[in-house]
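Quick question about two entries, pasted in order.
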Amino acid sequence: MIAIIDYGAGNLFSVQNALGYLGLENQITRDASEIRKADGLILPGVGAFPDAMRMLKDAGLVDVIREEAVKKPFLGICLGMQMLFDESDEFTTTSGLGLIPGRVEKIVCPYKIPHMGWNHLELNGHSPLLAGVPEGSSVYFVHSYMACTESANVTAYCDYGVKIPALAEKGTVFGAQFHPEKSGETGLTILKNFGGLTR
C-alpha cells in the first residue's frame, strides 16, 4: 500500500490515477496511523513552499513524515521534492523537512520562468527509479525554484540554461522535480519502479 499524503497542497488525484493505472494499491490520507502502516509514501505538492510547510504543520504531519521517510520508500513530487530539503528562500526563508541536505532557490537562467513543459533528463549515476529510463528521456516540469545540493544527491539533471536537479535521493528518500504522473511512459516507468521498492 502506497499512502499519498493529503495536506491540502497536492495534485492528489493525478498521482492516484497513475498509481491505479499501474495496479499499485494506494490511498489518499492525512491519518498518521495510515502513514505509519503504509509500505511507501508519496508527498505531492503545488504552490508556494511557505504555505505548503505551514499546511503540513497544521495537519500535524511533519514529525510522522520525518520518522517514516527513513524507514520506507518516500517520494516527493515537484513542491513535494523541494520540501525534502533543509530550507527554501521562496518569499521568505522557510525550513523544510531536512531529509536531503541542501536548499531551494529561485531559478536564475536566460529563459522564461516558470520552467514549464517537457525537458530531457541527463542521468547522473544509478537510481532504482531510473531502471529502464534511457538517457535523454523527456519529463514534464512546472516550477520557478530549484534544489541546490551536492551532485552526490542528484541522480538526474535537466538543462534549462542552468543545470536543474530533476531527481534527487538520499537513502530511502527520493525527490522528482518533474511530475511523473504527467510524464507519459517515462513517468509511469519511474512510478512503477517506485512501487517495486515498496514490495
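Here is the second entry:
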Amino acid sequence: MTKLLQFFTGQKRLLAFSGLAILLVASFGIMTDALAHGVTEGDKGYIQEITGVMAIEFIYLGAKHMMTGYDHLLFLFGVVFFLYRPKDVGIYVTLFAVGHVITLLSGVLMDIKISPYIIDAIIGFSVVYKALDNMGAFQRWFGFQPNTKAATFIFGLFHGFGLATKILDYEISPDGLLANLIFFNVGVEIGQILALVGILIAITYWRKAGGFLRHAYSANAVMMMLGFLLMGYQITGYFVS
C-alpha cells in the first residue's frame, strides 16, 4: 500500500511538472516569429543602420541572445545536470562553446543560409537527446552509452548554426564584419557563463535541499517534453511560414 501511494504521489509530481512545461511552451507558441528566432525588430533595425566595428553593441547582442535563448539554456541545463566536479563542467561547456564558435563564424562568413526553423528544430532535438541521455534511455534501449563529450560538441555545432542564422537575419554591414562577429561571440560566451552560474547555483541548492536524485528522472522527462514541443513548434513554423 505504501509503495502504491508513493507511485501515485510521483505521478502527481510528474503531472504537475508536465502542466508547467505545457504552459511554458504555450507561451512560446504565442510569441512573435522574430522573438522565436532571437531577432527583435528594434535590434535588427538598429544594426542595419550602423557600420564599422561596434564592440559594445555586438557584445550586448550576443549576451542578450544567450541569456534569452531558452533552447540553448535547456540544453546547457541538461549537459550539467549530472556533473558535480568543476573540471567536468569546464570540459563539457568548453566543447559546447568550441562547437558553436566554429559554425557561428563559418556560417556567417561563408553565408551558409539554412532555414532557421530547421536549425531550431534540431536544437530542440538536442534537448530531447540530452534528456534521454540523462535518463539512461540509450543504455536500456540499445545496450550502450553514446560518447557524451562527442555529442555535446556535435550539438554545439548545430547551436552555432542557430546563432549564425540570427546574425544573417540582422543583415549587418560587411564593414567590420569579422571583428563584430568576434565581439558577438564574446557576448555569447559572457551570456553563457552568466546563465551557467545561475543554473549551477540552482542545481547545487537543489542537491543540498534533498530529493535531487528522487526527482531527477521526472525533471528530465519534463525537459524531454519541452524539447519535443519546441521541435513541433519549429517544424510547424517551417510548413506554415
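Reply: Residues 1-37 have pLDDT under 50 and may be disordered. Residues 10-240 form one domain. Hope that helps.
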